UniProtKB/TrEMBL annotation:
Cellular component GO terms, alphabetical: membrane
Chain segments annotated as transmembrane: 20-47, 67-88, 100-120, 126-145, 152-173
Domain of life from the UniProt record: Bacteria
Primary location group: membrane
Compartment(s) of residence: Membrane
Protein's recorded name: TspO/MBR family
Record has S-adenosyl-L-methionine as a keyword: no
Keywords for the protein's UniProt record, in alphabetical order: Membrane, Transmembrane, Transmembrane helix
Pfam families reported for this sequence: TspO_MBR (PF03073)
Organism field: Nocardia otitidiscaviarum
Membrane topology value: Multi-pass membrane protein
Length: 177
């Protein structure tokens, strides 16, 4: 029984999406998609010719080819938007605002990594920043799980890819100093 609402958890979760009409749900999805797209755009626009810069770096043998990053990040950003939307519609705003606030923080940290690594070429700072990003992603997953378990699960590939990216960042930093 959920003491705040006086109903069972399953009733709260089922009633969440129903309280928004289709237009409001689509508007919420559009706003979230725009936020995620803005984060992606900041990374892309801040470091022109990242593929060329990536190829020019000495890399570990396990580094993926540059063409792989675009499709992977497209999928991950789509999953991020879906996860945030699932949480937004799961419960009233007052209950999900902290979780969505932490989501926005991790999105900002995500957007900052590319300019640090590629544009500024501060690979050590980028590594420290990606560790903070990882903590923010874990916090987001934990908070999302409290409101909508599928949303938390949808973020696991993002967490795993970011762990891989952190290891790659560290290796590239060490190989290119």
């Amino acid at each position: 029984m959920n003491s705040r609402a006086g109903t069972s958890d399953s009733t709260v979760r089922r009633s969440g999406p129903a309280r928004y009409g289709t237009g409001a749900q689509m508007a919420g999805l559009a706003v979230i998609a725009l936020l995620v797209a803005a984060a992606a755009a900041v990374g892309n626009l801040s470091a022109v010719s990242t593929a060329d810069k990536y190829e020019a770096l000495e890399q570990p043998a396990w580094a993926p080819p540059s063409w792989l990053f675009g499709p992977v990040w497209t999928l991950l950003y789509s999953l991020m938007a879906i996860a945030a939307w699932l949480v937004w519609r799961a419960e009233p705003w007052q209950r999900v605002r902290v979780a969505l606030g932490v989501f926005v923080v991790q999105l900002i940290l995500n957007a900052l990594w590319t300019p640090l690594f590629f544009a500024a070429e501060w690979r050590g700072v980028a590594f420290a920043e990606i560790l903070v990003l990882l903590a923010a992603i874990v916090a987001t997953i934990v908070l999302f799980a409290r409101h909508q378990r599928w949303a938390a699960g949808v973020l696991v590939p993002y967490l795993l890819w970011t762990v891989f990216a952190a290891a790659l960042n560290l290796a590239v930093w060490q190989l290119n100093t």
